[in-house]
Amino acid sequence: MAKRGPYGxxxxxxxxxxxxxxxxxxxxxxxxxxLRKVAARCAISLPGLMHYFDSKEDLLxxxxxxxxxxxHARQEERGASLSYREIIKEGSGTPGLVELFVSMAxxxxxxxxxxxxxxxxxxxxxxxxxxxxxxSRMDTGTIRTGIVPAERLAVLLIAVxxxxxxxxxxxxxxxxxxxxxxxxxxxxx
Amino acid sequence: MAKRGPYGxxxxxxxxxxxxxxxxxxxxxxxxxxLRKVAARCAISLPGLMHYFDSKEDLLxxxxxxxxxxxHARQEERGASLSYREIIKEGSGTPGLVELFVSMAxxxxxxxxxxxxxxxxxxxxxxxxxxxxxxSRMDTGTIRTGIVPAERLAVLLIAVxxxxxxxxxxxxxxxxxxxxxxxxxxxxx
DNA sequence: GTCTATACGACGATAGAC
DNA sequence: GTCTATCGTCGTATAGAC
Lengths: 189, 189
Prior knowledge:
The structure is a homodimer. By secondary structure, the first copy, chain A, is mostly helical. The first copy, chain A, has a domain of 107 residues. Chain A is 71% helix and 0% strand. The longest helix of chain A is centred in the C-terminal third of the chain and has 26 residues. Chains A and B meet through helix 6, helix 7, helix 8 and helix 9 of A and helix 6, helix 7, helix 8 and helix 9 of B. Chain B binds a DNA duplex through helix 1 and helix 3.
C-alpha cells in the first residue's frame, strides 16, 4: 500500500529503519549498539537516519511501539484474548529485546523521556485487558474470588510477567512457562 | 576500623567515591549521569577516580554490592528475617536507585558484564532465603501448601517485587505496599 | 599507591550545502 | 531527503609527578 504524494518513500524508509533497529538490538543487545550501526544496515548515513527521528530515544520508543502494535494485531487476528501463558511467551526468547524493553522502562521513569507516554498508556491498557479476562473467569467460577479484587490482581499478574523476565535475563534456567502455570494454579478455586 | 598500612587512605577514598556515586544516581537518575560528575563531587580528577575502579560498569556494580551489603547488615542487626512488606520497601522510594538496579540487571544479562556475577549469585541466595521463610510458615500452617512448592513460589514472590518496582517507576500511583499485602493474602490458607 | 594532565576514539546531535 | 563536516561529551588509556 505504498502511499503516493510526498510521503510514500519516506514512510517506507522509516519502517525499514525501525525493522533494522529491531534486528540490531535483537542480535547485539541494547548495550553497545549505536545508531551508526543501524544506519549502516540501511545503507544510509547517520544524519540521514536522524532525518526520520528526533533522537535515539525517540527511535527506540517507536521500535517498542511497533512491537506492541504487531503483538496487538496478532492478537486481534486470532480473535480470542491471549492466555496468560501466551502473554508471558510474547516478549521472551529474544534476550536483546527483553533487555531493550526493561532498559526503556527504567529510562521512561523520567517524565521527559519520549517513552514515558508509551509506558504510561501501556500499563493501564494492559491492566484493563487482564481485569476483563479475570472477571469473566471469576463469573464462570474457575478462579478464586473474594480475596483480592480483579483490579489489584491484574497489577500482580503483570508484575510477575515483567519480574520473571528480569530474573530470566540473568539466570536463563528460570522456567517462565512453569511460573505462568504456577500463578494460574494459585488463582484456581 | 581504619586500616593501617598502605591501604588506609585508599580504602576510605574508595568508599567515599561509592557513596558519592550513590548520591548522584539517586539525585539525577541513572540516565545522563557521568563519571565526571561523580568525580567532581569527590573533588578529584576523572583519572584519579578511575584509579580505584576498572571501568564505569565496575564502579556501578560495586555500588549495587554496597547497597546489598548494607541491607543485609541491617537485616542481621535486627535479628529476625525480613517480612515481605519490608523487602518490597527496601529498594523503593528512590526512583534513581530503582532505575539503577533495573538497568544494571538488564545489562548484566551479558555474561561478560561485571555485574553478571553479582546478579547470578544474588538471585539464588535471595530464593533460598525466601524458601526458608516460606517453609517455616508452611510448617506452622499459616500458608497454603500442596499447590505450588516453596522453591517455585519463591521465584514468583521475587518476580512480583521486581515487577512491581518496574510498574511503579513509570506509574507512581501503583501501591507497592498494597501489592505486598495482596500477595500474602493469596498465600494464606 | 595516589593522583593530575593530556589525549584518543566513538557516541549522539546539529548546521548547512546539494 | 540526504549528504559532509563539525560539535561537545562520553568512557577510556597512557605518561608521569609525588
